[in-house]
């Protein structure tokens, strides 16, 4: 590098999860001090980009993730946005897809990469998958080859759009999948980027919105579900949004009591969002008679959205538009950050 050339810079943000654990002398897993990242991965000295690191005030197993932590992560990235070319968030795998989805909605006009990664085995273990994941995530986030203007997840050689990703294995190293959108890059001998799949480079300035409304519920349907269970969820005090995880292409029981329960929710101003239990494919309201009544009463179809993106999108829109249900309803069925396969995108939020 000659003296005038600026080295790219990546900020590594540690939030917790298996990746950051090291095995103690007694064999128990302890969180690892991120300042020691170079001790754990001396190879990082050989990169031609600069890596700085920081961590959340509280390091967590990602099962404890909440919107407050999403906001903490977003605060760090927003504060440091001008100083870095990209960001890597080290995160537990369990709820990584939720955090990636939440961040994708919070950052409008993102023009730098935010890459989440983690591992199935702790970095301090001999067979850890964390090493590869972290090194590839850093390289991608450094933006030296291409700038991916998206929140993504890198895991076991694939880079996925964050809000399309789902954790699919508690055992395999390839723990994530993106069923309804192809991977954005593949790491082999080279990292091969599929630029045509990236979101477009935004034109406006970065805008970070940090409001979520947690007053939502997910009702997963199963054959034999009782009116008492459905009603207890619908009648949750102060509920603002309800996701029903339906069968196949968005189908649900056509029995009177079920439709009446949903009608009751809608009458109370609750937004009802129809998301399929299937991993691949989309909700198609009115394809079967089993979704016609829901369509007629005003349930919104979720297209091919993942449950992780649906939960965070609903919380986000309710947070951004408090007491403005019509605004939320209109945007739920549109693509905000490429989370659903629709041309009908929403640019304002
Ligand atoms: N329970 C851990 C977490 O999500 C699992 C992992 O990191 O893979 O924080």
Can you tell me the CATH superfamily of the largest domain?
Answer: L-asparaginase, N-terminal domain
Small molecules in complex: aspartic acid
Count every beta strand, where a strand is a DSSP E run of 2 or more residues. 18
Radius of gyration: 21 Å
Oligomer: single chain
Please bin the fraction of helical residues: 25-40%
Largest sheet: 8 strands, mixed
What CATH architecture of the largest domain would you give? Answer: 3-Layer(aba) Sandwich
So how many helices?
9
The overall pLDDT average reads: 93
- Poorly predicted segments: none
For this structure, the CATH topology of the largest domain is Rossmann fold
State the separation between the terminal residues, measured CA to CA. Answer: 41 Å
Strand line-up in the sheet with most strands? 4-1-5-7-8-9-12-13
Give the strand content. Answer: 15-25%
User: What is the CATH C level class of the largest domain, in words?
Assistant: Alpha Beta
Structural description of this entry:
With 349 residues, the protein is an alpha/beta fold. It folds into 2 domains: 9-208, Rossmann fold; 216-332, 3-Layer(aba) Sandwich (Rossmann fold). It is 26% helix and 22% strand. The protein has 9 helices and 18 strands. The protein has helices spanning 37-40, 67-80, 96-106, 130-141, 227-234, 256-267, 289-297, 307-320, 325-332, and strands at 9-16, 21-23, 29-31, 50-60, 86-90, 107-108, 114-117, 151-155, 158-161, 166-167, 176-177, 185-187, 191-193, 207-208, 216-220, 241-246, 271-276, 300-301. The strands form 5 sheets. It has an 8-stranded mixed beta sheet. β2 and β3 (29-31) form a beta hairpin. The longest helix has 14 residues, at 67-80. The radius of gyration is 21 Å and the shape is globular. Aspartic acid binds next to loops.
